[in-house]
Amino acid sequence: MFEEVSKILVVDDETVNLELISAIFIDSPNIMILTASDGLEAMEVLKNHTPDVIVLDIRMPRMDGIEVLDALKSDQSTSHIPVVVLSGDEKERKNALKHGANDFIPKPFDAEELKLRVLNNLQVKKYQDLIKNINEVLQKEVMKKTKELREALELAREAEYEMVVKLGMLSEFRDEETGQHIRRISHYSKLLAQLAGLSEFEQNILFYASPLHDVGKVGIPDSILKKPGPLTSEEFELMKLHTVIGGKILTSDPRFITLHAGKIIAEQHHEKWDGSGYPKGLKEREIHIYARIVAVCDVFDAMTSDRVYRPAFTVEQTLEIMKKGKGSHFDPQLIEIFFNNIDEFIKIRETFRD
């Protein structure tokens, strides 16, 4: 059985870049490279082809990259296609993200980094398509109301969770974390939601969506993600963009409840109760309850785990530090519930050890 061919559209007015990027994928037989020398030509190509990823230059004659982005994201038939922008200007890259770009590559680009970023976005697209297809099939099957359907629903839910975990791991394995971190966050979040009085429906939403909290890290360079020392202010500004990138990746039809909740969590889990977080500086109950719950769970797991820049803290040290964030970093009610039930969270940590 032949593996499906993935299409990558490269749009750049510099012929040498089109040739170089095409050459980067010459050893990938299941990837077809389509090229366009400017935005207008790209729109013509899109009339006959639906690419899986678009690599897009910003500065081009006739129709520049921002105009192409606006056209792509306003059209339902192309809005779901991941777009990786090429630019040597930081302001241009941030502007492109605001207009719907999913990722960026600085110019002049490193060939290996470009290939890895494009392949990462291609993998994310495949998982999104798979989850979407599963949900569409289930919506049709639910009309049958049979025992066979109930069994299929249970299996599909388990499969969805595994796909969400794998999607989360696309970023985590580059951050030297494991699938166990993803599973711990999932179980922590459901437990804290239960203790906070959320409905069983919302507990399950958090269980399935919380693993997607850091998926936007696929768009952060390894030089920042794996840096053994503290980040510079410029590097930290780039790191903060993983919340924006995660939201772009997970943007979908609201009917896909897991992806919609994952988008909220990815965008808001670094917001803080006192408004000093990012990316939007939301405060108190402006921050969605899902994100407030994941914020507590993510900090606890991060601090009690080894990182490239420091060894793990003990549980006692971690709790002492987290107490100082009550009412500033964390929702004061949620953190109090967490402290009062810490033994249950430690049991989860022991069950899903790295």
TrEMBL record:
One of its GO terms (biological process) is phosphorelay signal transduction system. Residues 156-354 form the HD-GYP domain. Keywords: Coiled coil, Phosphoprotein. The lineage of its organism: Bacteria, Pseudomonadati, Nitrospirota, Thermodesulfovibrionia, Thermodesulfovibrionales. InterPro entries: CheY-like_superfamily, Cyclic_di-GMP/3'3'-cGAMP_PDE, HD/PDEase_dom, HD_GYP_dom, Sig_transdc_resp-reg_receiver. The modification 4-aspartylphosphate is found at residue 57. It comes from Thermodesulfovibrio aggregans. Residues 135-162 form a coiled coil. Residues 7-122 form the Response regulatory domain. SUPFAM superfamilies: CheY-like (SSF52172), HD-domain/PDEase-like (SSF109604). PANTHER family: CYCLIC DI-GMP PHOSPHODIESTERASE TM_0186 (PTHR45228:SF1), CYCLIC DI-GMP PHOSPHODIESTERASE TM_0186-RELATED (PTHR45228). Pfam families: HD_5 (PF13487), Response_reg (PF00072). Gene3D superfamilies: 3.40.50.2300, Hypothetical protein af1432. This is Putative two-component system response regulator.
